[in-house]
Amino acid sequence: MPSPQLPLALKLDTEATFDNFYTPEGHRLLVNQLQQQAAGTGEKWVYLYGAGGKSHLLQACCHLAESEGRYARYIPLGELIDFDPESLLEGAEYLDLLCFDDLQLIAGHDEWERAVFNCYNRMLATSACMLVSSSLAHSQLTLGLPDLQSRLQSLSSYRLSDLNESERMAALKFKANIRGILVSDAVAEYIYTRCQRDAKSLFDLLNVLDRLSLVEQRKLTIPFVKQAMAW
């Protein structure tokens, strides 16, 4: 079965920047390392794993690299796993930054495993940097190509940990502030105690509330949020 036609362009989320990423104290070193790599002053090989937010960070690295006149490519494997890897990775060794998102998805896909392995080897001879994200630590990957598993284990590894309760509350207010939404402590606590408490669910709900408040021309008060969450 032939591979589907390649997309004409892999567009980055315009909002996925470092300025829009809530960074608690425990993640500052990690974010600093990623910023240095994106700017060309950091490590050549980086492996990022763990909690949510990785896709945002990889795209933020691409945005930063491009803002400084560097060439970056973002490969979201959740969207591109059915495409021809050789076409997607052609010339990748001449980029400044190559980002693979959700690398665990290539496990069992022989063509992808071989293509990533070959790309890594080509990049050894150039100044190109590689940033990889995965839901799993590299020691937990179940790749069919042992040489690729070995290469990935040589990457500098950083874990993105889950936010604690106070950090999730702070992240909710941070995201609201970026969108120009005034959220009081009381409203933030009301939302937090009545929503799934992972960061993605909180942010998704905030997006819904923002749209509804614009339509209704109302501020985010507890009565409004209560009504909106009941719809």
From TrEMBL:
Residues 12-153 form the Chromosomal replication initiator protein DnaA ATPAse domain. GO terms for biological process: DNA replication initiation; negative regulation of DNA-templated DNA replication initiation. Pfam families: Bac_DnaA (PF00308), Hda_lid (PF22688). Residues 166-229 form the Hda lid domain. InterPro entries: DnaA_dom, Hda, Hda_lid, P-loop_NTPase. This is DnaA regulatory inactivator Hda. It comes from Zhongshania marina. The lineage of its organism: Bacteria, Pseudomonadati, Pseudomonadota, Gammaproteobacteria, Cellvibrionales.
